[in-house]
Amino acid sequence: MKNFFGRIGNGFRNFMIGRYGSDDLGRFLMGILLILIVASFIFRNPILQGVIWVLFLYIYFRMLSRNYAKRAAENDWYLRKTEKVRRFIRIRQRRFADRKTYKHFTCPGCGQDIRVPKGKGHVRISCPKCHNTFEKTV
Ligand SMILES: [Zn+2]
């Protein structure tokens, strides 16, 4: 039985050779797809069902595509369009992760996220990006 699954695994690997596979855009669309599938259990709507099928086929078309350059260009476009949102989420996650040891500030000059160890009292902060200075209590 182990050999059987091993053969399936090898077959799948061989099948995927030269194909594009998964990327950030693919994972994002997969997330949207899952949300729509859950929504379709609540709202039984034929248009929603259609959208789910089109999205499903598009996700698999991209994964199985052999046109690597075009799929990579689509992914680059997605990454550029979502840069600000992804940066916002990344900063929030980091702020939450080290909330006990660091205090975060946004530079009034350039908007850079700056973290300062907590408990240092009143400090003068110099922005590493634009060298603007401002004072805060941490
Ligand atoms: Zn700055």
What's a concise summary of this model?
This protein is an alpha+beta fold. 59% of the residues lie in helices and 14% in strands. The protein is built from 5 helices and 4 strands; from the N terminus they run H-H-H-H-H-E-E-E-E.
Q: Would you write up a description of this structure?
A:
The chain is of the alpha+beta class and 138 residues long. The protein folds into two domains: 2-81, no CATH class; 100-137. 59% of the residues lie in helices and 14% in strands. It has helices spanning 2-16, 24-42, 46-64, 68-81, 83-97, and strands at 102-106, 113-117, 122-126, 133-137. The chain has a two-stranded antiparallel sheet with strand order 1-2. A two-stranded antiparallel sheet has the order 3-4. Helix 2 (24-42) packs antiparallel against helix 3 (46-64). The mean pLDDT is 94. It binds zinc ion. Residues 107, 109-110, 112, 127, 129-130, 132 line the site of zinc ion.
